[in-house]
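Run: sequence + iron/sulfur cluster -> complex structure.
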Amino acid sequence: MPMTGPVLTRRIPTFPYGDPKKRRTYWYDDYVKSGGYESLRRALEQEPAHIVDMVKDSSLRGRGGAGFPCGLKWTFLPKDYEGQRYLAVNADESEPGTFKDRLILDYDPHMLLEGIAISCYACKLQTAYIYIRGEYHHQAHILEKAIAEAYDKGIFGGKGLLSGASSFKVDCYLHRGAGAYICGEETGLLESLEGKRGWPRIKPPFPAVKGLFGKPTIINNVETLCCVPFIVEHGVSWFKSLGCESTIKGPPSFGTKLMGVSGHVNRPGVYECDLGIPLSKLVEEYCGGMRNGKKFKSAIAGGISMGVLATDQYDAEMDFDIGRKYEVLGLGTACPTIFDEDTDMVMVARNITRFFKNESCGQCTPCREGSGWMYKLMCRIEAGEAKMKDLDLLLELAGSMGAMPGTTICGLADGNNWAVRTIVNKFRGEFEARVKPSFVPVTVGVG
Ligand SMILES: Cc1cc2nc3c(=O)[nH]c(=O)nc-3n(C[C@H](O)[C@H](O)[C@H](O)COP(=O)(O)O)c2cc1C
Ligand code: SF4
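>> structure
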């Protein structure tokens, strides 16, 4: 598979393509000088439906975690609906270990705004809300300035897109969250945008039919929307020449992907790679290898909800097949956290259960009660105070919670389930070594 140069990060020096010390924010003038908003101009010369077809044909899959085909999602909007429709841009980025959208927001905010403008035109969405996580103060300020510039230059606002190049008008607003993981879940995000507690909604109805304020709404991740101008600029075949086909008769993984690597590597950071790059190559070639020359032990596949790879899965291909091929939930955000040979996997599991216990919104009993119970069990196991049956109870609890087993409203509980199950199953020896041996009754012989 050929490795490509930067696509999304062409203006953001990232190793090995440029000196990260030379990074700076590309404001409107810089952006236009480097070809920015040309894709919007080109898109406006075409029928909206043609742009939707292009995105559909490109097989672009969502970069926010679930990998849902973007163009297909766009076609779920009601066809003849003339009223208000919304775009909700998911910039919540609260999955632990994930920091790839931040790179875009820090350095190339107009790339996102161009993606928003094209997507709104294609799907006839009059208003876009960018929902940004509470902790991203700096990025919120950058976006505020970039949005003001875009209004000033006629990208958004009263005259119609691109100073009246299209009569279709789009407004774009920034909305700051308060720092809750659950507000990254798309319907929790909508509730929060409406000014309510971020409680995920029961689906169906799906947001494309009944979303923000009850109106048809498309929700897309920052990175997903940033792929759209490039598909318009270079075409569908170009996009399909990047990344890889599925090797297990699944949907393809085309395009490049921002991979944020953290943990025990020499050079943690965000790298833009073709989908399908082996994890070992990402670590050894891009991240300068394992820290202190230690051996690879495990990695969180792509955000902690995805679970972990085993030691012998170091060569796992980072594409959307990873879930089915390597017994993890999926590629997630493609931001792996790497663990070396000295990592205590029991501690990792305890830490993860603590996170999910704190972040459960509390609506569903299996998630609310189960996450707290799992955390208590993990504390007992880590302290060496648990019995073997507690390990089985932990696995039973984990396996029974989630939208996939059909017991909860949203996927937060699936994340907790998969994280714990994959760690216990792939590193069971470490857990068994920590639990007390079971009580074995001694039979005293009589007679
Ligand atoms: C608990 C939970 C947290 C999530 N957090 C985020 C997030 O921070 N950012 C994001 O883009 N998607 C997040 N998602 C996925 C969104 O629900 C949704 O699938 C995504 O924003 C759709 O955009 P995409 O199709 O472009 O990926 C989360 C999902 C769950 C279940
Ligand atoms: S699964 Fe958990 S986080 Fe999701 S809605 Fe239910 S209680 Fe809330």
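>> summary
Residues 244-340 form a domain with the Ubiquitin-like (UB roll) fold (CATH 3.10.20.600). Residues 182, 200, 360-364, 367-368, 408-410, 412-413 surround iron/sulfur cluster (ligand 2) (CB under 6 Å).
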